[in-house]
Amino acid sequence: MSKKIYCIASFKPKAGKEETVFKALQTLEPNTHREDACLHYTVTRQIDNPFAQATSYPIVFHEIWASREDFEAHCQRKEIQDFFAKHVESPEGDIEDANVCVYTDEPWNFDAPKV
After folding, report:
1. Which tens digit of pLDDT belongs to each residue from 31-89?
2. Which of helix, strand or coil describes residue 5?
3. Exposure winner among 21, 64, 67, 74, fewest CB in 10 A?
């Protein structure tokens, strides 16, 4: 049975702060990539494309973690908590809103054999 956790963390920068927020999020990548349970961790920014014109927050982290526990441990790291305190929770922060969601690839009632 897969224990992987998929996280989509979307960020809405305050007006004119898109590049600042993108660069600030990029600084989180190197240390996160050092975490053994980090399978994928990449910050991306929305681009114009005629085949994908939906509206969403313009900056998104795509993350894959070995397990729920590993994702939760990552969220407790001081660097991550400090980032959210400074950029999201503080009124002086550059991020207007953030939306962090986790997903599984396991179907409901999956009967995989235990190994």
Report:
1. 999 999 999 999 999 999 999 988 899 999 999 999 999 999 999 999 999 999 999 99
2. strand
3. 67
In DSSP terms, 8 is beta-bridged to 62, 101
d(CA 31, CA 47): 26
DSSP state of 100: E
User: Could you tell me the strand order of the sheet in which 95-103 lies?
Assistant: 38-45, 59-65, 5-13, 95-103
Whether 12 and 96 have beta carbons less than 8 Å apart is answered as: yes
Q: Which residue has the tokens 């526990």?
A: 69
pLDDT the model gives residue 1: 58
Q: Which tokens sit at 18?
A: 């898109």
**Residue closest to 58 by CA, chosen among 3, 9, 92:** 9
Could you say which DSSP state residue 43 is in? E
